[in-house]
Amino acid sequence: MSWIGKASIALAALAVVIAAGVCCCCPSSGNGPQPQVTAAPPMPSPTPPWPTPTPFTSPAGPFDRGEIAVGDTRLAQLPSAVSADFWTLDIVAGMAVTIDVVAEDRGWDPMLTVRDAAGEEIAFDDDGGEGLNPRLTGLFLGAGSYELWIEAYDGYGEYTLSVVEVTETSGGGWISYGETVFGEITDWQPEQWWEFEGRAEEVISISMIGRGDLIDTYLELYGPDGSFLTSDDDGGDGLFSLIDGYMLPETGHYRIVTRAYGSDVGEYELTLEQVEIELQTIAYDQTVRDELERAGARDYWVFAGEEGDIVRISMVGLGDFLDTYLELYGPDGSLLIADDDGGGDLSALILDFSLPQSGDYRIVARAYGSYSGEYELTLRRTKERTIAYGQTTTGEIVGIGRGEGWLFEGAAGDLVSISMVGLGDFQNTYLELYDPDGSLLAADDDSGKDRFAYIGGYRLPYSGTYHILADISLSGYEVPYGEFPMGEGGVLPAAYRLTLRQIEPQTIAYGQTLAGQLTEEEQWGHWFFQGVMGEIVRISAVGTGGLSDTYLELRAPGGALLVEDDDAGEGYAALVDGYTLPEAGTYHVVVRAYGGGAGAYQLALQRVTVQEQPLAYGEVAAGELAVAGERDYWRFEGAAGDEVTISLVGAGDLTDTYLELYGPDGALLAEDDDGGENAFARIAAFELPANGAYRIVVRAFGAEVGEYELTLEGP
Q1: Mean of the per-residue pLDDT values of the chain
Q2: Please, what is the Cα angle at 669 between 665 and 675, to 5 degrees?
Q3: Average pLDDT of 262-283?
Q4: Based on C-alpha coordinates, what's the Rg of the chain?
Q5: Cα 188 vs. chain centroid, distance in angstroms?
C-alpha cells in the first residue's frame, strides 16, 4: 500500500455524518428475547461526577498520546481495532526524517498517517517497513507542528513509534531557471531533493514528468526556512505533477522534493522555469466566467481585501468541466487555503475564510486532474453571523452554493445539538459543523423531525470558535448551477430557522430504568454509562405517552457507532440485547423516535450473564436459534499462537449466519458474516494472541431462526 495518498483509508470517515435510517438487518443489531441470557444483580450507581466522554472526532478516538521529538522512541497501546492514536511532532527547522511503527504484539497490522498543522494528510504508509509494519523513509518536513496518527488495518495491540533524522540528501542536486534535470525514484531512494535560488515575487513553474513505469509523480516545494509551501499530484498532463504560477514569498534558498505518488519507481525529468502570469481582477459579490483552454492551465485572479474580511470563493465547472480546484494566496505570496470538492459535485468552495491582513490576494483557478473548459468563479464577502447556546435565529439562502455561515463559541466536552427547520415551502435543509481549524466534524440532511436537518448530541473536541454551515440539500436532485426545484423540496430564496442548544448529559447505571422525554425542540435523548471491556449489556427503550416507535444507538467511548436497533423489542420498541462491550470507558446511548417526533420513553440498562457451552478443538457441535435475535455462547480453551478456524453452517430456514470471537480479556478479536460457503460465517486461520478461555458468539444475520452446526478446528 502506498505511503502517501490523497486520503488515509482508515480516516475516510474523518467527517462524522449523523443520519436516521432503518437497520433491521444490521449485522450488529440484537433482535427479540434471548432465553439463555439472564439479568445480573443490579450494580450500585457510580458516584458523580461522571468522566467526560471522549470527543466524537473519529472512530474510537482519537487519543492524544502527547509529544514525540526527533530521536525519540515511544511505546504505547492501541486499545481497539477501531481506535486512533496521534502524537505531536514539532519541527523547528526543515529536515528529513524516517518514522517507524513496529507492532509489538503478533497478529495486528498498524498504519501510519502524517498530518500537517491544518489537518491535511501529507504522507501515509501501511506495510513499508518489516512485515506488516509501516515506515516512512526520508520524509522531508518543513518547520511546524505535525500529527503522527496510528491506526489499525487489522487487529490492535502494543506498538513502538520512533522518529529519526536523515542527514544525507537523497540524490538530486542543484537546478536553475530554464534547466531540465534527470533523476530516478527507486525502492531504496523513494524521494530526491533539488535546490535553487529564488527571489521574492518571482513566479515559477516546476514540472515533473515520469518515464517508463513511473506514471504518477508528486512534487513538494519548501521555503528558505524549511517551511512547506505547496505541492501537486496531477496538475500536469496525465498523472504528472506541475506546480505552475507560484509566486515566491521571499529571497533565499528553496528546496524541491520529488517522489512518486504510490509505489511507482523509475526515471523522471524535472524542469524549473521563471514565468510571467496574467492577473485578472475580481471584486466582492462578483461572478465571472472564463475558460481553462488546456489540461494543466491555471487562471490567476486578484482582489483587494481588508484584514478580518470573511470571504467565500466558489468555482463551478460548466459543460464537461467536472472537477475544479481553488487556491488562495496572501499578500506575502503564501498559500493560505486550498479546496477541491468543498462545494459538492466536484466543485471547489473556500467557505468563509477570514483574511489575515490587508492587501492584494491572489486566487488560482484550475482543474483537479486533466479537465479543462469553462467555469464560473464567484467571490463574496459574508457577514460574521453569530449564534449562542439557547438561541434561535433565522436566515435566508439566496442561491446554490450560498449557504450561510454561523459562528459560536464552544468549550471542550460541550454536548451540542443544532437544528435547521425550513420555513414556508423550503423542506430540504442541510447542516455542517466545522471545528475551529476548519475541519468538517459532522453533517446531516434529514435526521430531525419532518426530515429537516439535525445534528444531535455532538461532543465538541476542544475549546474555540466553531462554524455552522446552513445550506440547501440537493440529495436526489440533478440541479443545474444556479437553479433549484420549485415547489416540493424548496424554493429560492429559502428561509429557515436555526437553533443551537447545549445539552445536559444524563447518566444511567446497570439495573436502572429511567424516564426520558423527547420534545419538539430536542428530539434525541443522550445517556451515558460506565462500562468495562467484556461486559455484556441489554439496553431497551420503550415509548410511553404518545411515542410509539423508538430507536437506539450505542456509541463507543470514542464516539464510534457500535450497534443500533429499531424494532427488536416488543412492538416497535428498540432493543440492543447481548452486546459485549469492546473496551472500558464511558459509553453513549442515543434514544430517538424512528422518523422523528416527541414523547415520553423509558430507558433500561442491564448487565447480563450468559450460559456458555463448552467446545474443544476438532469438535462439531449442534445448536438451535429458536427466537429471532437469539445468541448462543460457546467457550473453548486456547493457547497463544494456536491457529483456529471456526465455521457456522445453518440448516433449514437459517441461511445467513454470523460469528464473533472474543479473547480472554473480553475484547472482540474477529467477526464474520459470509466468509464461508453461500452466506455462512467462517473465521479462518486466526492466530490466538494469548493463553486462556475464548468465547464464540453464534447468531443469525438478521431475524432468521433455525438449527446450526458449529465447527472448531485447531492445532
Answers
A1: 80
A2: 155
A3: 90
A4: 28
A5: 32
